[in-house]
Specification:
single chain; 657 residues; alpha+beta; Alpha-Beta Plaits; 3 domains; 5-stranded antiparallel sheet; 22 helices
Amino acid sequence: MAVARMRKVHIIAHLSRKAELVATLQEWSVLELAVAPQKERHQKSQTSATVVSASEYEALQAEIGRSLVYLRRFDDYKEGLIDSFMGLKAGVSPELDEQIRAGFDGRAAVRQTREYDKRLTEIASERRQLQAEQSALFSWSSLSVRLKAELRGTVNISFGTVAQKDMNAFLQRLDTQCQGLFHLEQVKVAGNKVNVAVVYHVSVSPAVIKEAIFTPAAFSTGEATPAEALSAVLFKLQALDVETQAITAASVLLVRDKLKLQVLYDHYGSLLQRERAESGTQDTRQTFWLEGWTDADTEARLTELLAQRFPEVYVRFDDPQPNEKPPIKLKNAQLARPFELVTNMYGWPMYTEVDPTLALAPFFGLFFALALGDAGYGLMVLAACWWFIRKYKPDAVSSKFFHLFIISGLISVVVGFAVNGFFGNLLDYVPIEAVQQVRRSLVVIDPMTNPMGMMVFSIALGVVHILLGICLKAYMTWKSGDKLGALLDQGSWLFLLSSLVLLAVTSSVPGLSSYAGLTQYASMLGAVLVVITQGRSAKGILGKFGLGLYALYGGVGYFSDALSYTRLMALGMASAVIAMVINTIAMMMMPIPVVGWIGALLLLIGGHLFNLLLSGLGCFVHSARLQFVEFFTKFFEGGGVPFKPFRRESKFTVIRG
């Protein structure tokens, strides 16, 4: 339950060792690098050279990325929804990674894919043009005229389309404008359109063929007839299809090099990281100065590694200065680490804050279990997450997600039996007395028969959760040096709220009624303490008193926060009722001959799976909300920046072994 202590690292070495040192630090993955400003004139030239090199790596990586996008069209393997969600990467051994980087000609593969992609784009454009020409020629294929071969310079010919309703008007205007020196041939009638060929003497130029009544045909046959031109177009289309098939076959063969291209993509990305890291150092003519952050637990190991690999390097570790904001690394026990995901959804703690992960972990798991309220559903969550981890072997972040639900599923199994939930009331239909006796012996409180008891338990759990948040705030205030503020600000509220809780208990439990008067006086004293302590920052007695009363009035928010935890009861009961309805309908279907058992089984599987998905989403959301709204607001501010060690960051591959 702590933010790891961070140390500022200063490393000074000779310029000749910079590239090797940066590469080694990337391999060790224990240091977050801090970018330092360049100051010397000669440093700028070095930086410029680095930028050129970095730009080259970036360009190579981009080219490989485009090649991988191209090859994706021909890859039989299609990434599924689960694979996309998991962000799965191909596992590569260090030996294979080295072999690919040394022996595979990635530039040649990129050049081939670029040429294929370019040619396929050209083919697509040519195909569209030819298909348009094919469509235009098809309507004229019955015309047996070789235009350029048969025209002798005394006549012109125009091809076009005229609407049937305009045909008579077109002929009249054509006769008037050509003075009878024309011939019109109707080539084809298609619907309400007529394809016509108009031959007229060169001495006349009919204006009607340039007007809207006449639509010129969009083709040019040259020495061939339209039918011959159409055959030529079809031949060209077939040739394009053959070429496309050849390129496709070659591209399918290139898909075998996908992993190699992915390795090179990540390799160039790694080199790009190194070049940028090298450009972030402070350099003199002979040496460079590198700064970064690491946690105190890694300090000894980093010192030892540097001494063994770079004995001539100077290294110094410092504590953060008051004006510095070191990156945040959380330090929790193994069981609590999955719950860091919940903390990080809200934000990262500041360096001076408490990491709330350990405090929220048991409450989040218990809230999830109460809202789910079913041991059978808990087993399904547990089994599904275990299967995902075994099958997909997720990375550290995704693994936290699944381990979070594994722990929550385990708690849900225990809590589910305690609240009499196993796929709703499915165990009630088991006609075995031993099973029923075990079931009844495990039940602590059944929300279906005792909803008020479940509501009181939910509120009591919320009160403990809220008081813990106030205690953490008091601890943070005390730790910061303001011990008086911790006693007066948080101490007064803890005294008042604890007194009110005891007052409620002594007033409602008959055996404790004799203590009700004492707890009542304690509550009144707590209210007075809140008024006195919370207004001390104001000026004047009236100001202090008024601010104290306002703070006491604001304490109503604690009661609304406590009531908010009744959602745990409501969600658990809603899930249980839906499950019971599914079971009831399934049992009603069983007496139906032949299909009854099949239908009931399908309903039980589908219905409970749907209920789990619906309820599980609500359980996660509301359990997280109780942490963020009711718990974190009591002490947690956030705003920290996560610790990101300088390491090989990859998109496609992960080196294992």
